[in-house]
Amino acid sequence: MLTDDKISIAKEILKNRFFQICINQKYKEKEFKIPIHLALGHESIAVAINKIMTEKDNLILSHRNIAYNLARLGVLKPILDEYLLAENGLMNGKLGSMNLINPNQGIVYTSSILGNNFSVSVGVSLSQKIRKYDGITIVLGGDGSIEEGSFHESLLMLKTLDLSTLVIIENNEWSMHTKISERRHSINLQKFCNAYDIKYVKLEGNNVFEYIETLESLRKDCLATKSPICIEVMITTLGDWTMKTPEFPNGKFINYHAGPSPNIDLSQGLLPIRKTNEDPIYVLENIFGNLDQIKKEVLSESENEL
Amino acid sequence: MKYIEFVNKLLKQEVSKHDELVLFGQNINAGSCLGGLTRNLKVKENSKVINSTNSENSLCGLGFGLLIGGVNSILFMKQLDFLLLGIDHLVNTFNIIRNINEFKSKSSFTIMPIIVDNGFQGPQSSLNNLSDFCSIARIPGFTITNKIDAEKIISSELVKPGFRIICPSQRLFQEEIIEPGKLEYVNKENTVFQYSAGTDVTIVCFNLSFSYGFELSSRLSKKKKFASLFTINSPICNDWSKIIDNLKITKKLIVFEDSKSINTIDSSFINDVMEFCKLDKKIIVKREIGEHWLNPTSDEIPIKYDEIINQIL
């Protein structure tokens, strides 16, 4: 990949983060009536998927769709206006956040019901096959959604009907306020996929360039084999805080789920939220060495968005 | 011709006309083909017939996904109660689709579940009321009760932009299809049908109770009394104008409603009617829910026709 391309991709990630921080700020200032699920920390996979999509592909999302909608659109204003339920919003203020779609950018369905979108993706993918469109369907879910029966029904249908679909599971280890270990036995997703004879791939580390390379190859693979591929992406949803209550005087760890994240502030600019590979910006800093100039350009370019 | 043969014949004619149409459901092209409902359905080359997996919830999602992708589809289901597994999509997925103009006008998705109303399937298959499904999200729905409404509903509602549920009755499968004779009136939504225009009594049939109303109307004719006979084929209908006009002449109302649930449309109908008409007589024939109502037993409502005729005249 050329350096200029890499810089452009880095900018997309930084812009995605910046836009989300701006929304978080407005959220803290109570500007929104609607619930919003931020996806800080999801920027690498969102930008990578945006990069590999062609105009023939469809993207189907979950309630935590903000990083993907921002990545596909590239600007904040129409999404911000949608969240403000304005008529000039991306979908005329009709959908809000958890069901936000953007058919012009291939985002054809988004569901706030866990697991609901998998079966819709089967239909969308089948329509591509019937109409002989040379594209794929990409559907997103989380580790909570694979507990739903619909996930398994849909994998079986995708395989049975020979549909070119990437099923992407963002595993952030949390569902609302419970960790996986607090709510269920572990699930070996790879073994499930083996049972359905579906290829399984795991992505981790938030290196967007590696993600793009892998996903491009998998896209071609699923088109050629007319078969679904399941991709588990290990992710950390950033924006956690410590809640102190009479029951927890020493504080209880609250993983970010929904609402504004109190510890994230616009004044922090584009500093990594966490200095580990869990944060795509920290990963970018390690790849580029110094991101200061790129960050400066992103902030300057994004100024008009606010 | 038997009811099921006639409905199957209409389906065969209709599905053969459309491009990019997917027919799907469990065993629709195998075994008894859902008691004959889906036997020998042939589609165009650019269409598809799929004997699907046993995944009712996801089958509903699949249909909505096809609609989003611009492909028409019909999901056939052996029993209405199987559709309970798909309620999430009937409500949540449909609500998104109909809120987006380009989706709701794009293509067609129809679910055709058989209402198991013969009564012998056991407690788990006692659900016989289409209103329960339609009212939850104001879903367009239609029952098929006779030759005329079958022709009208299948030819104009089976494949058209948007989503709806169309239900045949299992109780009627092996009966001769009822031929009501003349269609006096049908509204543009195909939700209110009128088959005769008598001035003595107004008979209104809900859900799948048309056979009772038709029988009563025939018996009245033999006594030289003539009824206006209506069916309300849609549970979300609120267009009572034609019936109210008729009641202003007859002033006598007989309602048939064969559902087992509490959520039935006749209650709101009667409320509306009473607001606009002063009736001389009113008889409501509904199912009696006794202590054995969930046991496998005939769902046929025992109607005392002579008693009703004596009361109403």
Task: Provide the CATH superfamily of the largest domain in chain B.
Answer: Thiamin diphosphate (ThDP)-binding fold, Pyr/PP domains
- Give the percentage of residues in beta strands of chain A: 5-15%
**What is the second-level CATH architecture of the largest domain in chain B?**
3-Layer(aba) Sandwich
N- and C-termini, Cα separation of chain A: 32 Å
Q: Spell out the helices and strands of chain A N to C.
A: HHEHHEHEHEEEHHEHEEEHH
- Sequence stretches where pLDDT stays below 50 over 5 or more residues of chain A: none
Q: Under CATH, the topology of chain A is which? A: Rossmann fold
Tally of alpha and pi helices of chain B: 10
> How many domains make up the coordinates of chain B?
2
Strand order of the largest sheet of chain A: 2-1-3-4-8-7
Q: Say which CATH homologous superfamily of chain A is assigned.
A: Thiamin diphosphate (ThDP)-binding fold, Pyr/PP domains
Secondary-structure content class of chain A: alpha/beta
The largest inter-chain interface, given as chain pair and residues per side, is:
A-B, 36 and 33 residues
| Shape descriptor of chain B | globular
**Main sheet attributes: strand count, strand direction, barrel closure of chain A:** 6 strands, parallel
- The Rg value of chain B, from CA coordinates, equals 19 Å
CATH topology of the largest domain in chain B: Rossmann fold
